Structure formats: structure tokens, C-alpha cells
User: What shape does this take?
Amino acid sequence: MKVILAKDYADMSNIAADIIEDVIKAKPSCTIGLATGSSPVGMYQELSRRCREENLDFSKIHTINLDEYVGLEPNHDQSYRHFMDENFFNHINIDKSNTFVAKGVGDPEKNLKEFNDILDKNEIEIQVLGIGPDGHLGFNEPGDVLYDKAHQEHLDESTISANARFFKNREDVPKYAFTMGMGDIMRAKRLLLLIGGNKAEAATKLLMTNTLDPHCPATFIRMHRNATVIIEQSLADVIGYKG
Ligand code: GLP
Assistant: This one.
């Protein structure tokens, strides 16, 4: 696992954008795994700027998103489909029919089959990841067991609390989500995890211990042969990580 210390959020976003740009230039028609959350927003803005001003070309790129809330229509302002359109897809020259975010409404079994089929058929060149305060990846919540493939998760109270800031009331936060499984994430050829903000507990378990702990799913990233973690310097200071 390669760890990069970023000066601040802007630096983390630029470094991440450089990595994605290199992947796109090496393989202009590859599939990229994407994440929502505040961690990758700066990277999406920088990639959008490079598309607009430097002709970084997304026209043949395919994307698959990590997760989606169960019960939210795609046009709901807190759905992850809406998030991706607003924060990224509407600002680059991607063909939206090449972007996949699991459907949150309709027959759950059908939606999961569609999600698993697309994961089975496509090799993810690089998977972008954020980390939940409880160490979750996508919506793979901590527990005694983790799941291989795309499935439905019951969200932890701490996840609901963390994501409540985006909803009018805490009760409006969906209780369930569809997510890629840990196996799906580990099968990506490369991983790119962005860590900043208030993720001290999860970052400590990932960077300062030697355990693979299902109660902190992010620790499994250590097993991947081509994983890059970018951490903001201020958070590294808090957990005492020196590189
Ligand atoms: C949500 C998403 C995760 C994301 C996490 C952290 O729970 N399902 O994929 O990593 O939020 O978000 P943020 O980057 O806003 O801290």
C-alpha cells in the first residue's frame, strides 16, 4: 500500500486527479469505479476543469459507482445518481449511458442482479474510495462478516448520523443501501483511497495497526497489491502518522 501525504484538501484533490488522468490517458476506454461523499468532490472539480480547459477526454470512459441509497429516486437531491450528475458527469464529456449507479427504487432483487451483472462483466481499472468514520468502504459496514458481492446493507447509526447533514431531518436518511461488496472492491486493478477530515479512528486502524479487521473494513485495503492512500497532513498529524 502506497501512502501519500497531501498538504491539504486541494493538494489531495490534485494528486488524485493526476492519478486518474494518467489512468485515462493510458486506457481511454476503461471502466473507473467512483465514490460519493465530500472526499472526492475536489478531485471531481479538478478533473472537470481539466476536461474543459485541457481536453481531458472522458468520451469513451465507463464508470460504476460504489453504492446507492435504497428508496431514493434517481432525481432525489440526495441520491448518489444525482450527486454524481451534479458534481461530475454534467461537467465532463462523458456519455451518461456509460455511467452506472445502482437503482435505489423498484424491485430490489432485480436492481442487485443488474448491479452484480455489470460488475461481473467489467473489470474496474481503478476504484476511487472514501472512508466512513466507522471505517466503512462504499456502504460495507463494520461487522463480524463482510460480503463479497453487491448486496443490501442495513446502515449503522453512526453512518446515518454522519450522513444526516445532507438531509432536512435525521429520519429522512435512508436506513438501507446497495453497495459493491468488499470482494468487488478488492477485484479492482487499482485502489485510490482519499482520507481527510474527521476520520482519525478509521485512519489509525488503517495506517497504524497490522490487523485486518472486519470491524474496520478499510483495513482490508492493505491486502491489495496496487492501493494508493492519500491522507491530508492535518489528519496524519492527529493520528501521529509520519509516513
Ligand atoms: C458515504 C459513502 C461512502 C463514503 C463516505 C464518506 O457513507 N457511502 O462511500 O466514503 O460517505 O464520505 P465523506 O467523503 O463525505 O467523508
Observations:
- Residues 35-39, 66-67, 130-132, 138-139, 159, 163, 197 surround GLP (CB under 6 Å).
- The chain has eight helices and ten strands.
